[in-house]
Design brief:
This protein is an alpha+beta fold. It has 13 helices and 21 strands. Strands 4, 5, 6, 13, 14, 15, 16, 17, 18 and 19 form a ten-stranded mixed β-sheet that branches.
């Protein structure tokens, strides 16, 4: 069968949607539309799906980012809840500790009004639908700890299986240099998110859907809209040859390379791209099961935020929001009038093609370890645990602090996904469904099919163990320790 041949399903017109890019946005949109019975052609230049920037955090409330608006935090909270309802085997169920160092300009108390707003909103969402209760009990959404509280916890033994917030705080209390922080210290129900288990979920679910054609190692080289047929003619190259197909609607989900497709179809767009990296470490002396630890700091300065993300078997992923760790000099670039694609320099392009020098990997990972060890002294014994997780993140518009974004529409039957955080992918997919319905490409909806569980029935039937095995294989194939694919909690 030629991939442009259209299939039909009850309530669906005979239409085909093309999606360029199989990252978390493209794969999620493909799942959403394929579950409706729409015929999908998903083009991915790489050899597997969801192989982009280092996803490690759910961002259920945006608590990592002090600088973003309350509305963005509320958007991220709702989007994260939806994400866990659909990708139910992808979360690492452990809380996040947020601490403010004494040399930081802000007060630890500044966090509390936003946390109360998020807690109240989460409680209301759970009251509205109990299936929204995916972040633990709303009454435990956050817990505050005074220095005296933490001093008491420090004397307790590490639990084998932490359950309560106090259980999770014990290993942190034993290891943090407590006199370096303002109080209270916060523990919040911000969970981890596994990029490898998302990739596994998307791959396994789409494989079961005959109406979704996943075209890996396929690069789109041209796209033209025919005003007569009202269709897009897509030209793409595989390892073997050049091929073409037609689609009724085209979605640009190319992530940081979205501008190349905008240029191809002559639709201008203003955006930024930022190259960032996280570092894989192994800490033999780790005692107890750790939560994630976020130590706030001013972005781009030597005291930029430190992020310690735990995985099984002593592995930790580190971020340090300084220019010699996670951020890079000239790593944030903007588009201009000549192109919708911001231009990263050749060094970043080489890194994106996995051409890191061993010296730089060691140097930046050791700087990340030292950055965390300012606050967790025993972490200085950690060592390089693998190659970096890295990628370029697109940010639509001109606001570098934007974190909650989803979709934009332009031209003839053309949309672009513009998510910044993985949890926004479902919001982008919902917006696409609404647009396709408005345009008559989806001709009707079943009124009784409206919950997340009903809309993603194939995805949610996947076996947890099958997802884990697939995720471990993906991690190893990409050169990472299998532990990074394994669940916590």
């Amino acid at each position: 069968m030629n991939i442009s041949e259209r299939r039909s399903s009850e309530g669906i017109s005979h239409s085909t949607v093309g999606i360029i890019g199989g990252g978390v946005a493209g794969a999620t949109i493909a799942l959403r539309l394929a579950e409706l019975g729409i015929s999908i052609n998903l083009f991915e230049e790489g050899r597997s799906l969801v192989n982009g920037p280092p996803i490690c955090h759910l961002h259920a409330g945006g608590n990592l980012y002090r600088e973003i608006s309350n509305q963005q935090c509320l958007n991220l909270l709702e989007q994260s809840i939806d994400t866990l309802r659909v990708f139910k085997h992808t979360a690492n169920i452990r809380p996040t500790v947020i601490a403010v160092p004494i040399d930081d300009n802000s007060s630890a108390l500044d966090l509390i009004p936003r946390l109360n707003l998020l807690k109240d909103t989460y409680q209301a969402l759970v009251k509205q639908d109990n299936k929204n209760k995916v972040l633990g009990d709303p009454s435990d959404y956050f817990t505050l700890y005074s220095q005296q509280d933490i001093e008491k916890l420090k004397k307790l033994d590490n639990p084998t299986h932490p359950i309560t917030p106090d259980d999770w705080m014990i290993p942190v209390a034993k290891s943090l240099q407590l006199n370096q922080f303002k109080y209270p210290i916060v523990m919040v129900q911000e969970y981890g998110l596994s990029v490898f288990r998302i990739a596994a979920t998307a791959s396994l679910a789409l494989k079961q859907m005959e109406n979704c054609h996943v075209l890996l190692s396929s690069k789109v080289t041209d796209a033209k809209f025919d005003q007569v047929s009202q269709q897009w003619l897509i030209t793409y190259e595989t390892q073997d040859n050049k091929q073409q197909c037609t689609v009724d609607y085209l979605i640009n989900a190319c992530g940081y390379r979205s501008g190349t497709i905008d240029d191809l179809v002559h639709i201008p767009r203003e955006r930024m791209v930022e190259f960032k990296a996280a570092y894989v470490t192994h800490w033999d002396q780790c005692e107890g099961q750790w939560p994630e630890v976020i130590i706030h700091g001013e972005r781009g300065t030597p005291k930029g935020m430190a992020q310690l993300t735990p995985y099984p078997n002593g592995y930790f992923q580190l971020h340090g929001m300084t220019k010699d760790i996670t951020l890079f000099e000239n790593g944030l670039v903007t588009s201009d009038h000549s192109s919708a694609q911001p231009k990263l320099n050749d060094d970043f392009k080489a890194k994106l093609n996995r051409q890191w020098s061993e010296e730089e990997v060691i140097e930046r990972t050791e700087k990340a370890i030292k950055h965390v060890a300012q606050y967790v002294d025993t972490f200085k014994s950690a060592v390089v645990g693998g190659k970096p997780l890295f990628g370029a993140q697109q940010i639509p518009g001109a606001d570098a602090t934007l974190r909650a974004a989803d979709i934009s529409f332009s031209g003839n039957n053309y949309a672009r996904s513009e998510i910044v955080k993985a949890s926004s992918a479902l919001s982008a997919a919902d917006a696409i469904v609404s647009e396709l319905t408005t345009k008559g490409i989806i001709t009707s909806h079943h009124d009784d099919v409206n919950t997340r569980e009903q809309l993603f029935s194939t995805t949610l039937q996947l076996d947890k163990q099958d997802i884990l095995v697939k995720a471990e294989n993906i991690a190893v194939q990409r050169g990472f320790p299998a532990s990074l694919a394994q669940p916590i909690g």
